[in-house]
Amino acid sequence: MSFKYLSESTKKTEQLGKALAKGLKPGDIVCLFGDLGSGKTVLTKGIAQGLKIKKAAVHSPTFTLMNVYPAPKVPVYHFDLYRIEKPKEIQAIGYEDFFYGGGISVVEWAERLGRLLPKVYLSVEIHHKAENERVFVITAKGKRLKELVKKIKI
Ligand SMILES: Nc1ncnc2c1ncn2[C@@H]1O[C@H](COP(=O)(O)OP(=O)(O)OP(=O)(O)O)[C@@H](O)[C@H]1O
Ligand SMILES: [Mg+2]
Question: Which residues surround ligand 1 with Cβ inside 6 Å?
Answer without folding.
Answer: 7-10, 12-13, 34, 36-42, 60, 82, 108, 132, 134
